[in-house]
Specification:
The protein is α/β, with parallel strands linked by helices. The protein has helices at 13-26, 52-71, 85-98, 114-122, 137-140, 169-172, 181-193, 224-231, 252-260, 277-282, 289-302, 321-334, 361-384, 456-461; strands at residues 3-9, 31-33, 42-47, 80-84, 104-106, 127-129, 151-155, 157-158, 177-178, 198-202, 210-212, 221-223, 239-243, 267-269, 307-314, 338-343, 390-398, 404-408, 414-418, 427-435, 440-444. Among the domains are: 3-129, 3-Layer(aba) Sandwich (Rossmann fold); 143-265, Transcription Regulator spoIIAA, CATH 3.30.750; 390-444, Beta Barrel (OB fold (Dihydrolipoamide Acetyltransferase, E2P)), CATH 2.40.50.140. The chain binds S-adenosyl-L-homocysteine, iron/sulfur cluster (SF4) and FE3-S4 cluster. Iron/sulfur cluster is lined by residues 160, 162-164, 167, 169-170, 204-205, 246.
């Protein structure tokens, strides 16, 4: 009999990808995914450790799951509770100690061993596996399923060697590792064969990618630019994106790929964190604000319609008002289509957490509000400038209203269209009619009676 599996995903896109692969690893054991924890035979929390609030949520959710398990009908069998992801990696033992209801704990690098861990948990053994194993988890995971959504994630690089002083990722995800080019292309072919039209390449430092090259030459390595060129030739792949990139690792080959490869979408998430050189140095970002400006200039010279996004941290230890204003200024100068901003959150085990110059909470809150106000205004202006434009939109899901479909513009804007037939998985030219803070609405340009082909290259450069 099929068993029910519920996975709750926190954190970044890499966790979204990992959750999908966990479900695939558990499918041979008879687990089918469900949409809610009630009635599930196994619940996995795939957790994030990046900021304090993110990890607190895990313990409160575990409380709710214990209640659910206790309410389970007699005879319904046990409900297994698993904790995965970066909190599991960082605080595995602590979770087992504080939360007796948890049956299994495993990290981002060990979920290919899930069948084994589940077998142990089913025998009543509490299982903890937070190794950084030598084997390649991707080799051990089952092949991707036959059907894929229109937009799919593909992890090509894991871990991080940068050690920014505020960040837990190097500790939770381990050292940098790039998957070989052929493995990535095989997975892309499987995804595209299953219906994926857009592939987003993932890595904590995705543009540090340097995978073993194709053609059996173990010595030849390929960077991200070269990988994207190959990916663009995979049948069915219409759109390529990548995230998250580091300004230090934007090389000439990648910039040229933005210029030459039409499938690579004109939108880039390029986090800067701060606009003040002293703070950037303290953060160990290893670039200045001007270095960042120059990288953006070169990218925009290669791809003039490139829209940008960023992450910002306000209230890093020792940040002065003037330094915060430098961040505001940099943001305004660059002009972002969207961006994420956070109050600095001291994380255990990271160097900045020990600094004696912590910024007071109300100061952080006030700076965040000012920055977000500026970023929101930029985002609204960017969306408003889309009104009247015609752009190719790839439809990826149904909206809440009947007949409504939601897709993405080349610039990652969410576009809502209503009453135009079944649009799922299609890329159609859409004329943007209205803009809202977080989305656009539009109408198909051509009659849908005829099959409209993706405008591809021509459409994007119009
Ligand atoms: N690898 C990416 C970032 C991954 S974490 C990069 O180098 O850009 C995603 C974002 O979370 C970061 O860009 C940063 O803005 C934010 N972040 C990470 N650690 C944080 C902390 N301790 N406090 C507040 N924000 C943090
Ligand atoms: Fe964290 Fe810095 Fe690595 Fe990004 S580059 S994951 S912010 S340590
Ligand atoms: Fe969070 Fe881990 Fe991603 S800490 S942001 S889930 S790499």
């Amino acid at each position: 009999m099929a068993k029910k599996l519920f996975i709750k995903t926190y954190g970044c896109q890499m966790n979204v990808y990992d959750s999908a692969r966990m479900a695939e690893a558990l499918a041979p054991l008879g687990y089918d995914m469900v949409d809610e924890p009630a009635g599930a035979d196994m619940v996995i929390l795939n957790t994030c450790h990046i900021r304090e609030k993110a990890s607190e949520k895990v313990f409160s959710e575990l409380g709710r799951l214990r209640d659910l398990r206790d309410e389970r009908a007699p005879g319904a069998g046990p409900m297994l509770i698993g904790v995965a992801g970066c909190v599991a990696q960082a605080e595995g033992e602590e979770i087992l100690r504080r939360a007796p209801q948890v049956d299994l704990v495993f990290g981002p690098q060990t979920y290919h061993r899930l069948p084994e861990l589940v077998a142990r948990a089913a025998r009543g053994e509490r299982a903890l596996d937070t190794d950084f194993p030598a084997e390649d988890k991707f080799d051990a995971l089952p092949a991707r399923p036959r059907k894929s959504p229109a937009t799919a994630f593909l992890t090509i690089q894991e871990g991080c060697d940068k050690f920014c002083t505020f960040c837990v990722v190097p500790y939770t995800r381990g050292a940098e590792f790039s998957r070989p080019v052929e493995n990535v292309l095989d997975e892309a072919r499987a995804l595209a064969g299953g219906g994926a039209r857009e592939i987003t390449l993932l890595g904590q430092n995705v543009n540090a990618y340097h995978g073993r090259g194709a053609g059996g030459d173990a010595a030849a390595e390929e960077g991200l630019g070269g990988l994207i060129r190959r990916l663009a030739c995979v049948e069915g792949v219409e759109r390529i994106r990548y995230t998250t990139s580091h300004p230090r690792d934007v090389d000439e080959a990648l910039i040229a790929t933005h210029r030459d490869v039409a499938e690579l979408m004109p939108f880039l998430h390029l986090p800067v964190q701060s606009g003040a050189d002293r703070i950037l140095a303290a953060m160990n970002r290893r670039h200045t604000a001007d270095d960042y400006r120059r990288v953006v200039d070169r990218l925009r010279a290669a791809r003039p319609d490139l829209a940008l996004s960023s992450d910002f941290i306000v209230g890093y230890p020792g940040e002065t008002e003037a330094e915060f204003e430098a961040t505001l200024r940099l943001a305004e100068e660059i002009g972002y289509a969207q961006a994420y901003s956070f109050k600095y959150s001291p994380r255990p085990g990271t160097p900045a957490a020990n600094s004696s110059e912590q910024v007071a909470e109300p100061v952080k809150a006030e700076r965040l509000a000012r920055l977000q106000d500026s970023l929101n205004r930029m985002q609204s202006a960017f969306n408003e400038a889309s009104i009247g434009q015609e752009m190719p939109v790839l439809f990826e899901r149904r909206g809440r209203r009947p007949g409504q479909f939601i897709g993405r513009s080349p610039f990652m804007q969410s576009v809502h269209v209503e009453g135009a037939g079944d649009l799922l998985g299609q890329t159609l030219p859409i004329r943007i009619a209205a803009s809202h803070p977080n989305s656009l609405t539009g109408e198909p340009v051509a009659a849908l009676a005829a099959t409209v082909r993706s405008p591809g290259r021509a459409g994007l450069q119009a």
